[in-house]
Amino acid sequence: MTTGSTEKVNGAKALIKCLEKEGVDTLFGYPGGQIIPFYNELYDSDLRHILVRHEQAAAHAADGYARATGKTGVCVSTSGPGATNLVTGIATAYMDSVPIVALTGQVPRALIGNDAFQEADITGITMPITKHNYLVQDAQAIPRIVKEAFHIASTGRPGPVLIDLPKDVQNIEIDLQYPDRIELRSYKPTYKGNPQQIKRAAEEIANSCRPIIYAGGGVISSNASAELVELAEAIMAPVTTTLMGISSIPTGHPLYIGMLGMHGSKYANYAIQESDLIIAVGARFDDRVTGKIESFAPNARIIHIDVDPAEISKNIMVDIPILGDAKQVLRSLIKYVQCCKSEEWIEKVNQWKKEFPLTYCHSQDTVMPQFVIEQISEVCKDAIIVTEVGQHQMWAAQFFKYSKPRTFITSGGLGTMGYGFPAAMGAKVGMPDKTVINIAGDGSFQMNSQELATVVQNDIPVVNVVLNNGYLGMVRQWQELFYDRRYSYTFIKGSVDFVKLAEAYGALGLRAEKPSEVRPAIEEAVRSGRPAVVDVIVECEANVYPMVPAGAAINEFIELEEH
Amino acid sequence: MKHTLAVLVENKSGVLSRVASLFARRGYNIDSLAVGVTEDPDISRMTIVVHGDGHVLEQVTTQLNKLIDVINVTDIRADDAVERELALIKVAADVETRAEIIQIANIFRARIVDVAPKSMTVEVTGDEGKIQAIEKLLRQFGIEEMVRTGKIALVRGAKKV
Questions:
Q1: How many helices (H) and strands (E) does chain A have?
Q2: Angstrom distance (rounded) from CA A308 to CA A492
Q3: Are residues B85 and B55 in the same domain?
Q4: Contact status, residue A505 vs residue A53, Cβ threshold 8 Å
Q5: Touching B: A residues 150-179, CB under 8 Å
């Protein structure tokens, strides 16, 4: 079960050695009283530790690192408030199925349950938002627990795992032997799809005239982009993606019809509604995608490929479930499929594409937010785009042209404002040769702007482009459309001078107020090789369109003229 | 419709709370839950009675299976299983009613496990219906206190969960 010789080390050192064995190179964290023994050992270790300025950022950075690299991200905090500050980041990773391991300090075992100073029941608190968690009661179990934690986080449907380490456990000396095998009798994810089901799916595809592929984040996490494109081309089916599935197929691919759902392209929503067969891959029929579920794709049979059995028929009954890893299932499915009779269908979809393109009102004087995204797209073709949450996030989904997987990183499920900047930081640490742009709003950026200190201190040149409209824009849009323009507490204009804020931290601060200034500012920020904030003053009441109101069928759009 | 689930779990601290919180946050109702260690000291067995249609049952089962500490989940069909609950019922009793209560207990193959000057405690095992029946009959004497275990169940014959 174990390899190598036994060595005697304390729990903290054992933990570090185990992390090294798992291939961890970077931790994002913040020290505190109950995790000091771990930090004491970390001082002598080769692991890179990025000291954040708020634990929430550590969790998001680990998440961004994981999404950009495909490896498991690691964050560390102390007990109590340190641990509870991780919670939003852990929940974000849970909702988007991102593999992270969170390490938290805990009060010594003898004090657990006594309401000790900085004690919080973090395993209890994170039970609903982790794939699994551990409270380490026995120091000798550390190697096994670390091995299991990384295995659980990164396999099957990935997700966050938390390990809570009482301070005394970190100090106890143990015989360190790192196990090379896992024995979890209750956890055996299915990867290989059932061959019968795959054959049935191939038959369905052969009989279909209006097929559509609906791809989600599972395609990206299982690295199945090549297979996705191959299947689409083999059967000549249009591909729509969820927000999480963006970048799984190049935006410019002729079969790609963009994102579907609430802010999806009209042609994607029309296509899914008119389809006779949906091939769902690593997607979960979320309410933002399906709209009113009773009216969703009324004439379509559904093939659902997913690694998580609990997603099958959770929101919508499927006809052919295929349990397994997207990459493996698609590979076998490709072997059986033939091109279906979809020429007319493709023509129709292309017609919709021409007739209802994604567009916006262009302006010579005011900077339109969508224009900024297009400029970023032209200047930074191969960049990793990270976003905060809100209108800018939807525009980044709609108007940037993605060419490679793992280049669009966003909080899809939880919709966490303040996610983007720390996640961008994590992505840049994981992929130092890539340009990393955080597309932000002026509301979201202020939720974790303290991380400017982290990126400056650690020289992590992330470029933040703030689409500054002086509003909490998405809420304002809803207030405009559904609450009679009563802009209750969404006006935030003048909250801070972002240029000076950047400069105060020692980062580069730039501002663009006219359309002609946008591109030079972005180019300068990227060229500088420094952490930067580009404050772009944009049209303050631009809306995200198309829009399907919550609870409506996804082909019922709101269309209002821009004023 | 009611379903009886036999859930084998790792015998570790915190498992009960993982299972219970899953039911709470997914909005499934537990009618009863009984838990105890099995013939293997590393494994505990929970018997959970839930109500809901086939879709709910399917969701409960797959969500339970996602918990790392859950080893397996089996839906035990009533016609195929031995099902038991146990109840302790403290009934008001005096010289005049004692004999009648004993008679009722005998009919239900229940046992008198404690007698005091003004009360008696009856222990009864059986399925839900039997326990409801004896409870109804004893009510006329005045039930002072009652405690019931959740249902436990084993599949008949050689089959195991």
A1: 22, 20
A2: 41
A3: no
A4: no
A5: 152
> Residues A22, A41, A55, A388: which is the catalytic one?
A55
Which CATH number, 3.30.70.20, 3.30.70.260, 3.40.50.970, 2.80.10.50, labels domain A7-176? Answer: 3.40.50.970
Query: What's the domain range around B25?
Result: 2-76
The token pair at A134 is 């551990």
Q: Is A128 on the interface with B (CB under 8 A)?
A: yes
Is B160 a domain residue? no
Residue A520: pLDDT over 60: yes
Any A CB within 8 A of B71 CB = yes
Q: Is A282:A222 a contact under the CB 8 Å cutoff?
A: yes
Asked whether the beta carbons of residue B68 and residue A152 sit closer than 8 angstroms, the reply is yes
Q: How confident is the model at residue A4 (pLDDT cuts 50, 70, 90)?
A: low
For residue B56, list chain A residues with Cβ-Cβ distance below 8 A: none
For an interface test with A, the pick among B13, B15, B62, B63 (most A C-beta atoms closer than 10 Å) comes out as B62
The beta-carbon neighbor of B63 closest among A123, A135, A310 is: A310
Q: What is the CATH number of domain A369-537?
A: 3.40.50.970
* pLDDT tops 60 at residue A319: yes
Complex ipTM, two decimals? 0.90
Closest residue of chain B to A149, computed from CA coordinates: B68
Q: Do A131 and B68 touch (CB under 8 A)?
A: yes
Report the C-alpha gap between A380 and A526 in whole angstroms: 8
| pLDDT above 50 (res A563) | no
Partner residue facing B71 (CB), from A132, A185, A310: A185
| Amino acid occupying residue A245 | G
Report how far residue A68's alpha carbon sits from residue A74's, in angstroms, rounded to the nearest whole number: 14
Classify residue B159: in a domain, yes or no: no
